[in-house]
Design a protein that fits this description.
Blueprint: H1 8-26, H2 37-59, H3 69-97, H4 102-141, H5 144-157, H6 160-173, H7 176-189, H8 192-205, H9 208-219
Length: 222
Protein backbone atom coordinates (compact mmCIF):
# COMPACT_ATOMS: atom_id res chain seq x y z
CA UNK A 1 0.00 0.00 0.00
CA UNK A 2 1.27 3.46 -0.89
CA UNK A 3 1.61 5.56 2.25
CA UNK A 4 0.99 9.28 2.57
CA UNK A 5 4.19 11.29 2.00
CA UNK A 6 3.74 14.68 3.65
CA UNK A 7 7.06 15.90 2.23
CA UNK A 8 6.61 14.91 -1.42
CA UNK A 9 5.00 17.94 -3.07
CA UNK A 10 6.69 20.71 -1.14
CA UNK A 11 10.08 19.04 -1.53
CA UNK A 12 9.66 19.01 -5.30
CA UNK A 13 8.98 22.73 -5.11
CA UNK A 14 12.00 23.33 -2.87
CA UNK A 15 14.28 21.34 -5.16
CA UNK A 16 13.04 23.37 -8.11
CA UNK A 17 14.02 26.55 -6.25
CA UNK A 18 17.50 25.18 -5.54
CA UNK A 19 18.05 24.25 -9.20
CA UNK A 20 16.74 27.62 -10.38
CA UNK A 21 19.01 29.64 -8.09
CA UNK A 22 22.00 27.43 -8.90
CA UNK A 23 21.67 28.06 -12.63
CA UNK A 24 20.99 31.76 -12.08
CA UNK A 25 24.15 32.17 -9.98
CA UNK A 26 26.27 30.34 -12.54
CA UNK A 27 25.07 32.71 -15.26
CA UNK A 28 25.69 35.87 -13.21
CA UNK A 29 28.41 38.36 -14.13
CA UNK A 30 29.41 39.68 -10.72
CA UNK A 31 31.49 42.42 -12.35
CA UNK A 32 28.31 44.22 -13.35
CA UNK A 33 27.34 47.31 -11.38
CA UNK A 34 23.68 46.28 -11.23
CA UNK A 35 22.60 44.19 -8.22
CA UNK A 36 22.23 40.66 -9.63
CA UNK A 37 18.78 39.16 -9.99
CA UNK A 38 20.33 35.87 -8.85
CA UNK A 39 20.94 37.34 -5.41
CA UNK A 40 17.33 38.49 -5.20
CA UNK A 41 16.31 34.91 -6.01
CA UNK A 42 18.74 33.59 -3.42
CA UNK A 43 17.33 35.88 -0.72
CA UNK A 44 13.82 34.69 -1.62
CA UNK A 45 14.96 31.05 -1.40
CA UNK A 46 16.58 31.57 2.01
CA UNK A 47 13.38 33.10 3.37
CA UNK A 48 11.29 30.16 2.20
CA UNK A 49 13.74 27.46 3.36
CA UNK A 50 14.18 29.00 6.81
CA UNK A 51 10.42 29.25 7.31
CA UNK A 52 9.93 25.69 6.03
CA UNK A 53 12.44 24.33 8.55
CA UNK A 54 10.59 26.00 11.41
CA UNK A 55 7.25 24.61 10.30
CA UNK A 56 8.68 21.08 10.00
CA UNK A 57 10.24 21.26 13.47
CA UNK A 58 6.95 22.35 15.01
CA UNK A 59 4.46 20.18 13.14
CA UNK A 60 6.24 17.13 11.68
CA UNK A 61 9.43 16.31 13.57
CA UNK A 62 7.54 16.53 16.88
CA UNK A 63 5.81 13.30 15.83
CA UNK A 64 9.17 11.54 16.16
CA UNK A 65 9.30 12.24 19.90
CA UNK A 66 7.25 9.17 20.71
CA UNK A 67 8.82 6.78 18.21
CA UNK A 68 12.41 7.90 17.50
CA UNK A 69 13.56 10.85 19.66
CA UNK A 70 17.16 10.39 18.53
CA UNK A 71 16.09 10.91 14.92
CA UNK A 72 14.06 13.95 15.95
CA UNK A 73 17.15 15.49 17.57
CA UNK A 74 19.26 14.61 14.53
CA UNK A 75 16.86 16.23 12.08
CA UNK A 76 16.40 19.35 14.19
CA UNK A 77 20.20 19.64 14.45
CA UNK A 78 20.39 19.50 10.66
CA UNK A 79 17.97 22.41 10.53
CA UNK A 80 20.32 24.34 12.82
CA UNK A 81 23.14 23.67 10.34
CA UNK A 82 20.89 24.73 7.49
CA UNK A 83 20.00 28.02 9.20
CA UNK A 84 23.70 28.68 9.85
CA UNK A 85 24.46 28.24 6.15
CA UNK A 86 21.58 30.50 5.16
CA UNK A 87 22.78 33.14 7.64
CA UNK A 88 26.24 32.97 6.08
CA UNK A 89 24.72 33.47 2.64
CA UNK A 90 22.63 36.43 3.84
CA UNK A 91 25.73 38.04 5.35
CA UNK A 92 27.61 37.59 2.07
CA UNK A 93 24.73 39.18 0.16
CA UNK A 94 24.87 42.17 2.53
CA UNK A 95 28.64 42.41 1.95
CA UNK A 96 28.11 42.31 -1.79
CA UNK A 97 25.73 45.26 -1.55
CA UNK A 98 28.45 47.41 0.03
CA UNK A 99 31.38 46.18 -2.09
CA UNK A 100 33.30 49.19 -3.34
CA UNK A 101 34.74 47.98 -6.64
CA UNK A 102 34.59 45.30 -9.33
CA UNK A 103 37.31 43.16 -7.77
CA UNK A 104 35.45 43.08 -4.44
CA UNK A 105 32.15 42.18 -6.11
CA UNK A 106 33.76 39.33 -8.05
CA UNK A 107 35.47 37.99 -4.91
CA UNK A 108 32.30 38.08 -2.83
CA UNK A 109 30.23 36.73 -5.73
CA UNK A 110 32.52 33.70 -5.97
CA UNK A 111 32.23 33.13 -2.21
CA UNK A 112 28.45 33.29 -2.51
CA UNK A 113 28.51 30.67 -5.26
CA UNK A 114 30.70 28.22 -3.35
CA UNK A 115 28.75 28.71 -0.14
CA UNK A 116 25.52 28.14 -2.03
CA UNK A 117 26.86 24.94 -3.60
CA UNK A 118 27.50 23.67 -0.06
CA UNK A 119 23.98 24.78 0.91
CA UNK A 120 22.55 23.06 -2.19
CA UNK A 121 24.29 19.76 -1.49
CA UNK A 122 23.35 19.86 2.19
CA UNK A 123 19.68 20.51 1.46
CA UNK A 124 19.36 17.91 -1.27
CA UNK A 125 20.70 15.29 1.15
CA UNK A 126 18.50 16.60 3.95
CA UNK A 127 15.34 16.48 1.83
CA UNK A 128 16.17 12.92 0.80
CA UNK A 129 16.67 11.95 4.43
CA UNK A 130 13.27 13.33 5.38
CA UNK A 131 11.58 11.26 2.67
CA UNK A 132 13.62 8.07 3.05
CA UNK A 133 14.34 7.97 6.80
CA UNK A 134 11.85 10.20 8.59
CA UNK A 135 8.93 8.84 6.59
CA UNK A 136 9.86 5.24 7.47
CA UNK A 137 9.90 6.17 11.16
CA UNK A 138 6.53 7.92 10.89
CA UNK A 139 4.95 5.13 8.86
CA UNK A 140 6.07 2.51 11.38
CA UNK A 141 4.33 4.32 14.23
CA UNK A 142 1.43 6.32 12.78
CA UNK A 143 -1.39 5.64 10.35
CA UNK A 144 -1.93 7.98 7.42
CA UNK A 145 -4.75 9.78 9.22
CA UNK A 146 -2.41 11.00 11.96
CA UNK A 147 0.28 12.08 9.48
CA UNK A 148 -2.27 13.89 7.30
CA UNK A 149 -3.63 15.66 10.39
CA UNK A 150 -0.11 16.87 11.28
CA UNK A 151 0.43 18.03 7.72
CA UNK A 152 -2.86 19.92 7.79
CA UNK A 153 -1.79 21.66 11.00
CA UNK A 154 1.40 22.72 9.23
CA UNK A 155 -0.48 24.02 6.19
CA UNK A 156 -2.96 25.86 8.41
CA UNK A 157 -0.05 27.64 10.13
CA UNK A 158 1.20 29.12 6.83
CA UNK A 159 0.48 32.74 6.02
CA UNK A 160 -1.41 33.43 2.76
CA UNK A 161 1.84 34.71 1.26
CA UNK A 162 3.69 31.53 2.27
CA UNK A 163 0.92 29.45 0.70
CA UNK A 164 1.20 31.43 -2.54
CA UNK A 165 5.01 31.19 -2.70
CA UNK A 166 4.98 27.46 -1.97
CA UNK A 167 2.28 26.88 -4.56
CA UNK A 168 4.26 28.74 -7.24
CA UNK A 169 7.26 26.47 -6.81
CA UNK A 170 5.20 23.31 -6.54
CA UNK A 171 3.60 24.26 -9.86
CA UNK A 172 7.05 24.71 -11.37
CA UNK A 173 8.58 21.60 -9.83
CA UNK A 174 5.85 18.94 -10.03
CA UNK A 175 4.45 16.75 -12.76
CA UNK A 176 0.87 17.02 -14.01
CA UNK A 177 0.03 13.79 -12.19
CA UNK A 178 1.35 15.27 -8.93
CA UNK A 179 -0.57 18.50 -9.46
CA UNK A 180 -3.79 16.78 -10.48
CA UNK A 181 -3.78 14.70 -7.28
CA UNK A 182 -3.08 17.75 -5.12
CA UNK A 183 -5.62 20.02 -6.81
CA UNK A 184 -8.31 17.33 -6.88
CA UNK A 185 -8.05 17.09 -3.10
CA UNK A 186 -7.99 20.89 -2.80
CA UNK A 187 -11.14 21.08 -4.91
CA UNK A 188 -12.98 19.09 -2.23
CA UNK A 189 -11.41 20.60 0.86
CA UNK A 190 -10.68 24.30 0.41
CA UNK A 191 -13.08 27.22 -0.15
CA UNK A 192 -14.04 27.88 -3.76
CA UNK A 193 -12.09 31.16 -4.09
CA UNK A 194 -8.93 29.48 -2.77
CA UNK A 195 -9.27 26.66 -5.28
CA UNK A 196 -9.91 29.17 -8.08
CA UNK A 197 -6.74 31.04 -7.11
CA UNK A 198 -4.73 27.82 -7.31
CA UNK A 199 -6.11 27.02 -10.76
CA UNK A 200 -5.43 30.56 -11.93
CA UNK A 201 -1.88 30.22 -10.65
CA UNK A 202 -1.50 26.97 -12.58
CA UNK A 203 -2.63 28.84 -15.69
CA UNK A 204 0.13 31.39 -15.17
CA UNK A 205 2.92 28.97 -14.28
CA UNK A 206 2.31 26.08 -16.68
CA UNK A 207 2.60 25.93 -20.47
CA UNK A 208 -0.81 26.05 -22.16
CA UNK A 209 -0.84 22.35 -23.11
CA UNK A 210 0.04 21.23 -19.59
CA UNK A 211 -2.52 23.56 -18.06
CA UNK A 212 -5.31 22.29 -20.31
CA UNK A 213 -4.45 18.66 -19.51
CA UNK A 214 -4.39 19.50 -15.79
CA UNK A 215 -7.69 21.38 -15.95
CA UNK A 216 -9.35 18.42 -17.68
CA UNK A 217 -7.99 15.94 -15.10
CA UNK A 218 -9.04 18.03 -12.10
CA UNK A 219 -12.50 18.88 -13.40
CA UNK A 220 -13.23 15.22 -14.09
CA UNK A 221 -12.85 14.37 -10.39
CA UNK A 222 -16.02 14.16 -8.35
Amino acid sequence: MTRFNAFFMIHKGLRAMLYDVSMSLQQTDFASEAFPEALERLSHLIEIFDAHAGHEDKHMFCLLQSCDPALQAEMEAEHVTDIALSSELSALIDSYKTAGDVAARIKIGNRICYTFYEYLAFNLNHLNKEELVVNEALWSHYDDGAIIAANMRLVSALSPEEVRKNAVWMMRGCSNTDLAGWLSVAKKQVPGPVFDNLMNLAGVELPADRYQALLTAVMQTA
